[in-house]
Structure formats: C-alpha cells, structure tokens
Amino acid sequence: MSPIPPTPPADQGSVPVPPGSRPSAGHRGALARVVVAAVLLLAGLAVPLLGPELALDGTGEGTGPGAGPVTWLRTLLFLALAVHVGELFARALTHRLPAGADVPEPPEPSSWSPAAATVGFLSAFGLALIVSTGNMLPSRLADMDLGGLYGSRDGTLALVEVNAFLLAGLLALTRHRALAALPLGAVIVAEALRAHPEVHSPLFGSALTLVHLTCAALWTGGLLHVLRTARRWHDRPTAAAALLGRYSRLALLLFVLITATGLVSTARRLPPENVLGTAYGRVLVAKLLLVAAAVALAFTARRRLRLSPHTPAVLAPARAELLVLVLAVALSALLTAVPIPVFYQPAFWWDWF
C-alpha cells in the first residue's frame, strides 16, 4: 500500500472560498445594468427639479416661478402620450407579423392605455390651471379663471388637450381602442400649435413640431410596448425576434424624421453662436447627446438581433435605449419651460410659408 501524501499546509492568511460564492459575470452584468438604470432614472427625476436653474445659470435669462411644475406636468403629459400612442403602434405591428412567426395566445400584454390617458388628463388639467392664472402658480382658487381659458389661444389649446385625453381614455376602455388615435392626434396638433406662437411662418413651425412629436412618441412608446410584448413571449423567441426586427426597421425611419425636423426647427430659432449661451441651447445640446446615445444603443440591439435573435441579451441594450429616451422626453419638456430665444431666421425656402 502506498503512503498517502501529506496535505500541504494552508496559508495562514488565506480563507477558502466556497464555490459559487463569487459573483459570476452574469450577476455582475445584471448589477451594472441595475446601477445604470437607477442613475438614468435619478437623472430623469432631477430634470424637473434642477433643470431650469442649471440651464439658466449664467445666461442672464429669467423664467417664471412655475418652470419646475410646468416641466413636471409636461414630462408626464409627453410620457402618457408616448405610452398610449406607442401601444397602438406596437399592437398594429403585432397584428401584421408574418404567419410563420408563431404568435402565442394571448398575443399581447395587458393594456396600459387607460392609465396613460388618466395621467395625461391630469397633467393637461394641471397645465390648464397654470394657463388660467397667466402662467403663474395658483396659490388660491380665486387666482384661477377657468372661464377665461376659452378667450385665449393658449387656454383653448389647453382645453383641447384635456378633453382629448378624456376621450382617449374612454375609448381605451371599449372594443374600439384604435379610435383613440384620433383624440391623441388632437393632443399632438394642440402641442404643435402651442409651441409656435411666433408671428413668422407659425404653421410651418407647427408642422415641424407635429412630425417631430409624433415620431418621438412612436419611437419611445412603441419600444416600451415591444419590450413588454417580447417579455410576454419569452417562450416564443421566433415571434419576439420578428416583432423586434420589424420595430427596429421602422424606428430607423422615425429617427431620420426626428433628426431632420429637429435640425430645421433649431435653425429657425437658435443662432449657432448662442447655442451654449442660452438655456434653450444648453438643454437642446443635452437632448441631442441623449438621442445620439439612444441611437448607438439601438444599433447595438439591432446587431445582436441579427447575430443571435433568440437570446435574451438582445433586450439589454433596448431596455437601456428606452431609459435614455425617457430622459430625452424629460429634456423636451424642459425646453417648453425655459425662455425661447428671441431669434428668427427667415432664410431659405421656409420663408415662403
């Protein structure tokens, strides 16, 4: 019998680590994604709280005392609009999937449209109250003149948004949910008209905002519902990959339209030499950086979808893209609360409108 070799003495300073106690690469990646998501959400919450003051710092511009609440309310309004419009958009994509996509039953997750319409209605009503006091925060009921809303342009547009969200919410509770696209379209038209009170070619500016806001709502809200549907279809990866692929192709067109309308709108309102010298320009630059980050994440998700469409790793950059887009929506709301630059360039072909 051969002798058993002696066990070498253990290092006095070392502690044996049981297998499985060290975090795996997957756990570390999940933790990193949670941290990034938390940072982005906190940044989104900070936009209405600190955004106006940070954007105005050192510019010499001033804004009303209601800039913070207006940013909050319009952020909620834009997000509610995106959720409702995006759900209608994604449901239309789902119903047009190829016959071989193996769509499961039930084919769709639960609807968020009624909740989104409720949030939109309350946000629009809050903004209407601020408009009724002359764009000031009401401190008492006597300050509000709701009847006077009918006598002003901003008041009429605010009431259109309130009633449109109410109608969209009622339609969302019926079998004819697709008809909610009509009042939601009225909200977008009202926002486009409200954003352009200028004297020079306001209809052309409103048309740009109409396309810009519609595409942004479809991009953000559509991605949210597509991700919810893909999660619901976790056991049907072929159908989920088909839906993600169809959405990503349309999202590229939406991005092109958003970029084109945004650049033309900026050229009409903001001189290049004053981009960083105005609050509007600073917020706009921050928004452009976020949109660029969202596009990079979208291309990453598209590449993963093409290489391995049936793996859950495809959804990780898409989820990050959604969070970045939500933050960009908050900055878009902040743009409506900071002073608009007193600048107009009636150049090129848009001077004809």
Range of strand content: under 5%
Identify low-pLDDT runs. 10-15, 346-353
Series of H and E elements: HHHHHHHHH
The largest sheet is: none
Number of helices: 9
- End-to-end Cα distance, whole Å, is 102 Å
Structural class: mainly alpha
What's the helical proportion of residues? Answer: 55-70%
Mean of pLDDT:
79
Structural domains: how many: 1
Q: Compute the CA-based radius of gyration.
A: 25 Å
Name the overall outline.
globular
Strand tally is 0
Q: How would you describe what is shown here?
A:
There is one protein chain. This protein is 65% helix and 0% strand. The protein has 353 residues and is an all-alpha fold. The protein has one domain. The radius of gyration is 25 Å and the shape is globular. The C terminus is likely disordered. Its main location: membrane.
Present the secondary structure layout.
Layout: H1 25-56, H2 67-95, H3 113-132, H4 153-172, H5 181-194, H6 202-232, H7 237-269, H8 279-307, H9 315-335
Protein name: CopD family protein
Organism: Streptomyces alkaliterrae
Subcellular location: Cell membrane
Summary, kept brief:
The chain has 353 residues and is an all-alpha fold. The chain has nine helices and no strands.
Tag the structure with descriptive keywords.
353 residues; mainly alpha; globular; disordered C terminus
